[in-house]
DNA sequence: ATGAAAGCGCTAACAA
DNA sequence: TTGTTAGCGCTTTCAT
């Protein structure tokens, strides 16, 4: 049996209330009493039971983080932002992977809520009606990170994907291309279908170009799928010469398909992708990118959640973070992006 | 106030014990009672409070995972292995980053134990005496994953790093090299200093070669540091022609340093690295690697932990997983590794 | 500044 | 098969 607050109280000849006060830094304790209690705690190796504390106080200082797949650099980086701010505010994190399955997402929300987390940060491809229902039932704040909430119902931290896609496409067009492709991850991800793709299309519209639907490629988000898709593409005479890509991994797949087939980037094809992880810098040529502020997305989400959990006044619970372009060698030198 | 077991009991005209039985799948409940209770649970939206349950049962079905940095692919992948098996056994995971700081590691251990986790999976560069002390005090099982325990005191899941390094080095030597380098992450990581480096040295010894200490490079484990180190190296007339590298990120740094300086891999330099993440496949030439079974390391650790938590008999709590070589283009074609 | 006592929501004997 | 009851280890009034 582990040491309890009661053992400490007895050993120090005080009541458990006093020990509780000492442990919680309550100022209403005579300094010498505090000292005495602290000494006993030290000697006995007393370690407060957070579960009991959680039951009594109705706060667990634990938050839930639900993520499609924490082993993907995208979410790993984002989660690290969450974790650092959580540490700063002394929260623990229960981290779970949903693998993008809606049933799992619902289950996990339910599960985390059952564990009495004080709040949740949720990442998903799409907030379905069922998810929405489930989230409404929650009695703790939930923040969406890197996730589109079409109804703008829940607190959300995001960046302007559509604008970035528009801007990137426009630059590609200004570089002289009229035949462009958009290679995306699954369109079940709202951000792909409703933001990036739309930005891509808007730039076309503005330039008086029409988007060729055959050049909107939906992949399964893997290197290999992108690689294969583009190898096929290279057999066409009318293959697009400029490519907007949804993320680094896909972009590298395309890049390698191009290079393995003896074409050149950026001479034959120019590429701009989203993300800019190490992968984008490690390949040659390095990839010009829309840098997604992943870490900050996480950090800001967590900061927002702390405010919500403390019921602090928040001016705005829909936050949009700035992005920037990182100019590298997958686009041509005098690129106006500079 | 949320619905409690008591509310359900009242509403269903049974005792809370019966509700508890239903919730916990205890077979000693008449089917129709069960049905009735289940209906009430459904209607009221009752969700068992895991904190209260934890206090009463002294089990939280939560484990702690302490990792240097979950945003690094190495640990992200390993953690995913842990997470999947944890899900399978219905455990939640509290995940924390130590950033390799010993004080944080001790703090986190203490913190997780306070949260009453049922077990811990711990990853660290080195198990110091203080850590050892702390771990001994724990009243729940702790499994080390991808972490060297020189004293062989704690349950551990690992692979044969030394043997892999030896074998890789030997192959490089068989490929005709006599001037080799070992580029490592920090030697504060026991596995680098006590396993990989030793394997590298043994192969030299066996071949009658002596290791040039100047060619044992300790980096800070970043792409950039490896890149810079190797750029300097390239200015020497006696630069090593074969390189064993501690992980993918460093290897890609070296690869790019070589290629950016117009040398060729594998013609001028051959490279074998540890890990083989996407990065190793994405670069050109792709990297010949010792594949570290990261996911399995995590999965097996978690499986071992479940056994320990259930006090099942375990034949052996020091597990060594097999590795394999992945032959790619950073070594020459007729490489005997095949 | 300190103590007494009533929960927090559940599990787990023990009874019935 | 079901109910009663005593905790689990703490926080939090309310007294003193």
Automatic annotation (TrEMBL), chains A, B:
Q: Name one Pfam family in it.
A: LacI
**Domain of life here?**
Bacteria
The HTH lacI-type domain extends over 3-57
Q: Does the keyword Repressor apply?
A: yes
Which InterPro entries does the record associate with it? CcpA (IPR006377), HTH_LacI (IPR000843), LacI/GalR-like_sensor (IPR046335), Lambda_DNA-bd_dom_sf (IPR010982), Peripla_BP_I (IPR028082)
SUPFAM superfamilies membership = lambda repressor-like DNA-binding domains, Periplasmic binding protein-like I
Record SMART domains? HTH_LACI
Q: Which keywords does the record carry? A: Activator, DNA-binding, Repressor, Transcription, Transcription regulation
This molecule's function is given as: Global transcriptional regulator of carbon catabolite repression (CCR) and carbon catabolite activation (CCA), which ensures optimal energy usage under diverse conditions.
Q: What is this protein called?
A: Catabolite control protein A
Recorded source organism is Savagea faecisuis
């Amino acid at each position: 049996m582990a040491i309890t607050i009661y053992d400490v109280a007895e050993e120090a000849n005080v009541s458990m209330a006093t020990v509780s006060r000492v442990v919680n830094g309550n100022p209403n304790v005579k300094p010498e009493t505090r000292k005495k209690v602290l000494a006993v705690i030290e000697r006995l190796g007393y370690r407060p039971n957070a579960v009991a504390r959680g039951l009594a106080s109705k706060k667990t200082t634990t938050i839930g983080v639900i993520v499609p797949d924490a082993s993907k650099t995208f979410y790993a980086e984002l989660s690290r932002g969450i974790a650092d701010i959580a540490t700063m505010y002394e929260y623990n994190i229960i981290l779970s992977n949903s693998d993008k399955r809606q049933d799992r997402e619902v289950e996990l929300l339910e599960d985390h809520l059952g564990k009495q987390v004080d709040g949740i940060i949720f990442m998903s491809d799409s907030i379905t009606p069922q998810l929405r229902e489930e989230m409404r039932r929650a009695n703790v704040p939930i923040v969406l990170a890197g996730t589109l909430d079409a109804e703008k119902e829940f607190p959300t931290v995001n960046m302007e994907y559509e604008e970035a896609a528009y801007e990137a496409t426009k630059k590609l067009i200004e570089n002289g291309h009229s035949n462009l492709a958009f290679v995306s991850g699954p369109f079940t991800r709202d951000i792909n279908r409703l933001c990036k793709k739309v930005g891509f299309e808007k730039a076309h519209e503005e330039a008086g170009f029409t988007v060729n639907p055959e050049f909107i490629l939906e992949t399964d988000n893997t290197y290999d799928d992108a690689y294969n898709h583009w190898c096929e593409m290279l057999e066409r005479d009318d293959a697009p010469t400029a490519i907007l890509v949804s993320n680094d991994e896909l972009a590298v797949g395309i890049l390698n398909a191009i290079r393995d087939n003896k074409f050149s980037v950026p001479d034959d094809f120019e590429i701009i992708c989203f993300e800019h992880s190490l992968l984008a810098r490690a390949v040659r040529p390095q990839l010009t990118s829309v840098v997604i502020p992943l870490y900050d997305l996480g950090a800001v989400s967590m900061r927002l959640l702390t405010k919500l959990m403390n019921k602090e006044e928040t001016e705005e619970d829909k936050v949009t973070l700035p992005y920037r372009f990182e100019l590298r060698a997958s686009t041509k030198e005098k690129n106006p992006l500079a």
